[in-house]
Specification:
The protein is an alpha/beta fold. It contains twelve helices and twelve strands. It binds pyridoxal-5'-phosphate. This is homocysteine desulfhydrase.
Length: about 400
């Protein structure tokens, strides 16, 4: 269970929790911030009790302030479990599918998560069915096994999806999956717990690439998995202990430092993204913009109902095909061409430059991760790059 250092203020807002959770006890002379704890080993004799500090792969206080903070932000009864990377946390969550079991997953999930699912299919006989996660009835038919199979063991959800920005109907999917006896895991990396809290919709497991918004400064690779249920939490913890994909103390310390400014960063990045989406929709060099903030975006109504904002990732298709999209990436000066997202720095890339990206993602789609720079500077750079790409084409 969580140590409740903010028990005196049980109902504070998430933006406050992001700043205050996980602090050391308030005693005169004590440091305000948790220290970096460097030890593999804790002094211990005799038969250890549950939770007694023993050994750094099993558990270490180096992780606790971050784990407590993320647990509280997601509204979980348990602290988060920090992992060496988002993929290590995702591997732990996918271990909840038994060998020979069934897994339903978004066609446009994070491509390495899809690769891991293919690996499970080959090595463990897991049957993987890919779906369009925004088509609720089709997803639930797949979960129930209406086409003749058995019900799924796990429904994997990303919302909004990477990089297509489809929005899943979280309450309907969770309710339908639970009726069919399936667990629901949500990759909440794109939204962050300030924008979307899957446990409030009944999800069983939440995972994060902490690398992205939570750490937020493009300087840490880290992951986390959370479960509200005691048994699921224990299974994820046991997986981490046995597979050993644990996080280093410095990375976790940096991630907590990042979380302290999460609310400000997300607020600014979302505002920038919505403004850029609005302007891009009217740009002569742009064929398509996907962002749930746009009133005519297919995900707008759902996002408005279940999210606290619309996130800061855009999908943009320039006019002129792949050559124009590549020309935009070449022409930007302030935006960084790079494959990550969720940092303070604005980044973009053409996703299909990777042979492993889903073939249903348009070849000419650019994914933009909008950062916290001045929006006029971001716009001026995009505008000149789009215009230059059109001139090159024309
Ligand atoms: C980056 C990312 C991951 C993988 O996380 P790593 O920290 O790179 O291992 C998983 N899901 C989503 C949505 C991501 O963006």
């Amino acid at each position: 269970m969580l140590d409740d250092h903010t028990a005196a203020h049980p109902s504070v807002a998430p933006a406050t929790l992001a700043v205050t959770a996980g602090r050391p006890p308030r005693t005169p002379g004590a440091p305000l911030n948790p220290p970096v704890v460097l030890t593999s080993t804790f002094v211990s004799a005799g038969v250890p009790g549950p939770g007694d500090p023993l050994y750094g792969r099993i558990d270490t206080e180096a992780w606790h302030p971050f784990e407590e903070t993320l647990g509280r932000l997601e509204g979980s009864t348990h602290p988060a479990l920090v992992f060496a990377s988002g993929m290590a946390a995702i591997a732990a969550a996918l271990s909840l599918v038994p060998p020979g079991g069934r897994l339903v997953m978004p066609r446009h999930a994070y491509q390495v998560s899809l690769g891991y699912a293919r690996d499970l299919a080959e090595r463990s006989g897991v049957e993987v069915q890919l779906v369009d996660i925004d088509r609720t009835e089709e997803v639930l038919a797949a979960v129930r096994g209406d086409a003749g199979g058995r019900a799924a063991d796990l429904l994997w959800v990303e919302s909004p999806t990477n990089p297509m920005l489809e929005v899943a109907d979280l309450p309907a999917l969770v309710a339908g999956a639970h009726d069919a006896g399936a667990l629901v895991a949500v990759d909440n990396t794109f939204a962050t717990p300030l924008v979307q809290r899957p446990f409030e919709h009944g999800a069983d497991v939440v995972v994060h690439s902490v690398t992205k918004y939570l750490a937020g400064h493009s300087d840490v690779v880290l992951g986390a998995a959370l479960a509200d249920d005691d048994d699921l939490h224990a299974r994820l913890h046991a997986y981490r202990t046995m597979h050993g994909g644990i996080a280093g103390p410095f990375e976790v310390w940096l991630a907590l430092r990042g979380v302290r400014t999460l609310a400000l960063r997300v607020e600014r990045a979302q505002a920038n993204a919505a403004e850029l989406a609005r302007r891009l929709a009217d740009h002569p060099g742009v064929a398509l913009v996907r962002h749930p903030s746009l009133p005519d975006d297919p995900g707008h109504a759902r996002a408005t109902a279940q999210m606290n904002g619309y996130g800061a990732i855009l999908g943009v298709v320039p006019r002129g095909g792949v050559a124009a999209a590549d020309a935009v990436v070449d022409a930007v000066r302030l935006w960084v061409p790079a494959t990550s997202l969720g940092g303070v720095d604005s980044m973009l890339e053409r996703r299909r430059r990777f042979a492993t990206e889903s073939p249903t993602v348009p070849e000419d789609l650019l994914r933009l991760s909008v950062g916290i720079e001045d929006v006029e500077d971001l716009w001026a750079d995009l505008d000149q790059a789009l215009t230059a790409a059109q001139r090159a084409e024309g």
